[in-house]
Every structure is written in structure tokens, then in C-alpha cells.
Amino acid sequence: MRAVLALADGRVFEGTSFGAGGEATGEVVFNTSMSGYQEVLTDPSYKGQMVTMTYPQIGNTGINPEDIESRGLFLSGFIVKEYMDCYSNWRATMSLDAYLKENSVVGIQGLDTRALTRHLRDKGSQNGIISTVDFDRESLVAKARAVPSMAGLDLASGVSCDKPYHWTQGLWDLQNGYAAIDPATLKYKVVAYDFGIKYNILRCLVDAGCDVTVVPAAFPADEVLAMNPDGIFLSNGPGDPEPLTDVIENLRKLVGKKPIFGICLGHQLLGLALGGKTMKLPFGNHGSNLPVMDMATRKVEITAQNHGFAVDLDSLGTVACLGHENLNDQTVEGIRHCDLPIFSVQHHPEASPGPHDSHYLFGRFVEMMEKYQAK
């Protein structure tokens, strides 16, 4: 079936359809990962976006139920160079095409993703539309231009959980799958705010010895403190952090009360709660091969990232300092409070399938809770 991708600036790409038919709109971004498309599909941080995979062949490992990162698919559309319907993977239970159809996600393949990526890199991420029903270029471009800008959108509220829940599942291994951890063996009580949390973050926290209770994005700070946790975690999530004014004000009530660790959107919200500002990046950072320096150790690690906004370090003044730096564009990749047990990172230390260079950050969070307990 014929399919067309049209961008708001008038650029149009033709291809063929896979996955669900119809129309899908959203901000078009590119992801440079060579593997892990299933984790990309199920990352809630992609809500409101259409993802272009720069790796040319996608679908050749199928889909399996163990590698999902959330309760569903939140992205608007999926764009690939060459979809592979014949998959080869002993864990797979269905094809990527069937999975997208099952979850009503529109896909397009057969277009020049290198040209599209270069265009987005030069012109910036922008809104677009994929259609299998309307092929009029002027009509499609007009629809793309009518899509609301990502800046100013509160998307996290739409992907957060509805009520608190307990998580005790550990990391996966080849012999046993995901480990079921006895809560009695977990030493640190952690409350995790869900702004679009990925399952592997929760598994990494459990693996580090944390007994995790997940709460909705709007969960009151006083109720969190009444649970008397050893630490508070702020999760990843989609969209612009600045519209989440109630969340930011809520987080301010937690600063100085408990150790805090934030990832991705949680990092940005923490920066805003500390009095800083955020900014939208031209095309963001999406992929699993991005170099970052830990400013405390000067070590370089390869990281997975997925964000279109960044914290403005200068706006934080003397409250926080640079914890990590992105070596590609020198944007803020992490901050740490100058006086309090608080730190955050923009990248994803829980990355599944990888890389795992930043996994040590969960241990750093545990060390912070240990020191806080010892006071």
C-alpha cells in the first residue's frame, strides 16, 4: 500500500505502508540506534513523536514479550528504510508489522531515511504526517503545519500511572528470565515518580537493592514524605517539562528532605524545581551511541539518550553544578546539587539493550542514600 510522509516545511517523502493504515501526526525525530527498536517503540518518552530509525533494516528480530519497556506503544508513527517481514529470533512471537497493526501504529518504509535524517539534522525536528489515504501534497503539508508544537505540551500526564503500585522484578538473565526478588531482601525504600517510566529503570533500582513504590506524576509531596522513603526517584517521560507547573512546585517541597535521583524528563523537572530553565534543542539526541563525560571522574561513557529539551546550566547559578556533559553538542547531560544529596542525568543508565556504561549511577544513588542514613 502506498504511503506518504510530509513535513511541515513542505518536504515530502514517498514510500509504502506497513503496520496500521490511516494517518498519524507528530514531531518527526531520528534515532541512531542499530538495535533495540522494540524498546524504542515501547518507550513512553516518544509520545507525540514519529521515530525515524537511521539503521537501514528494521524488523529482522521480530517482537517478543520480554523486551517491552511499558504498558503499550506511545509513539505516533514509525519510519524505516527497509522493513524486514521475515524475522529470525528464538525469542520472537510475532512480526513487527503485526505488532504495529495490533497497537494501531502507522508505519512507512521504502523511503530515503538518510536524506530525511540529513534534512532533520540541518533544518531541525519538525511536525509531520504519515498517510495511507491522502496523497495530495498540499493537503498533507497543511495538516502537518496544523499539528501543535512539542514546546508547551504536557504529555507526561497522559502516560503516567493512575495509582501507586509496588515493583519487585529484577534484571533479566539468559537462564531464568526476569528475577522475582523477595522484598525482604531489599534494603532501601524508594518512591519513584512516574512521568513515563521505563520498566528497566525499575529493574535496575531493584537490582541495586531498592524496594520501589511507583506513584503518579501528580502524587502529593506530603504523601511521599509520609511514606518515609530512603530516596526519591524522578523518571523519564515525554514532552516539554515547563508546562508541568504543578509537578515542579510539588518537587520543590521534596528538595532537601530526601536524596533525589532523576533521569531524562526527571532531570529537566529537577532543574526547573531548583530554579533553573530548560530549552528546546534543534533536533534533540535520540540513540544509543552518544558520548558523555562524567565530570567527577573525567571518564567518558557511551550512552543511550532520548530527549528534545535540555537544562540551561547558567540559569541554576550556584545551586547546582555540571555533573555530566554531552561531548557531541556540549549540552548539560547531568547536574548535581552543590550542598544536598541530589543529582540527575539526561541520558539513560538503564539502557536496554544497551549500552551499560552508565549503570553505575544506580550504585551512586544507593551510596547517597547510605550516607544520608548515616547522618
Index terms:
375 residues; alpha/beta; Glucose Oxidase, domain 1; Rossmann fold; 2 domains; ten-stranded mixed beta sheet; seven-stranded mixed barrel; 9 helices; 21 strands; 21% helix; 34% strand
Question: What are the SSEs and their pairings?
Answer:
Elements: E1 2-7, E2 12-19, E3 23-31, H1 37-41, E4 49-53, E5 57-58, E6 77-80, E7 82-83, H2 96-102, E8 106-109, H3 113-123, E9 126-131, H4 137-145, E10 165-167, E11 169-173, E12 177-180, E13 188-194, H5 199-207, E14 210-216, H6 221-226, E15 231-234, H7 245-252, E16 260-263, H8 265-273, E17 277-294, E18 299-312, E19 320-326, E20 332-337, E21 342-345, H9 360-374
Parallel strand pairs: 3-4, 4-6, 5-7, 6-8, 13-14, 13-15, 15-16, 16-21
Antiparallel strand pairs: 1-2, 1-9, 2-8, 3-9, 10-14, 11-12, 17-18, 17-19, 19-20, 20-21
Helix pairs in contact: 7-8
Task: Write a brief structural summary.
With 375 residues, this protein is α/β, with parallel strands linked by helices. The protein contains 9 helices and 21 strands.
Walk me through what this model shows.
The chain is globular and about 65 Å long. The chain has a ten-stranded mixed β-sheet with strand order 10-14-13-15-16-21-20-19-17-18, sandwiched between helices. Strands 1-2-8-6-4-3-9 form a seven-stranded mixed beta barrel. It is 21% helix and 34% strand. The chain has two domains: 2-145, Glucose Oxidase, domain 1 (3-Layer(bba) Sandwich); 156-374, Rossmann fold, CATH 3.40.50. It is built from nine helices and 21 strands. With 375 residues, it is of the alpha/beta class. The mean pLDDT is 97.
